[in-house]
Write a structure and sequence with these properties.
6 helices
Length: about 130
């Protein structure tokens, strides 16, 4: 089986809704894992807004399951590290009066120009966000 660059070899799964009011991890069902192989801002944004590999978007997971789909510590940490991208994209669009997709393109261009990983970009954006006081 051939896997395209930037795609994960894992089989996407859809979390099972927990109708119980109790937060019992055994009742939540299969856990979705954000794609760790994503190395570009535009691919991350696709996963966030549309979904990739046949899986629902992160926005849809948040809307449907709130935080229960990311009950594992590693998933919560990874989600938190990537959330700065969303905040920065929205901030750029709002303050520069550009579309969200234009903000995504600008961040990806910056990542490539600085020749840094997506993880490094997230750390830099987190520092910049702190300096802005957000």
């Amino acid at each position: 089986m051939s896997i395209a660059r930037g795609q994960s070899a894992s089989v996407p799964v859809t979390p099972v809704r927990n109708n119980s009011r109790r937060r019992n991890n055994s009742q939540i069902g299969t856990q979705y894992k954000m794609d760790r192989a994503t190395q570009s801002v535009d691919r991350f944004w696709e996963e966030w807004t549309v979904g990739i590999n046949g899986s629902p978007s992160i926005q849809a997971l948040n809307s449907t399951f709130r935080a229960s789909w990311r009950s594992e510590v590693a998933e919560r940490k990874f989600y938190s590290q990537r959330l700065v991208l969303v905040r920065t994209i929205e901030w750029m669009a709002r303050t520069r009066h550009i579309s969200l997709n234009e903000a995504v393109d600008e961040l990806e261009k910056r990542r490539r120009n600085e020749n840094i990983s997506l993880s490094r970009l997230c750390r830099i954006l987190k520092e910049e966000e702190s300096k802005r006081g957000e």
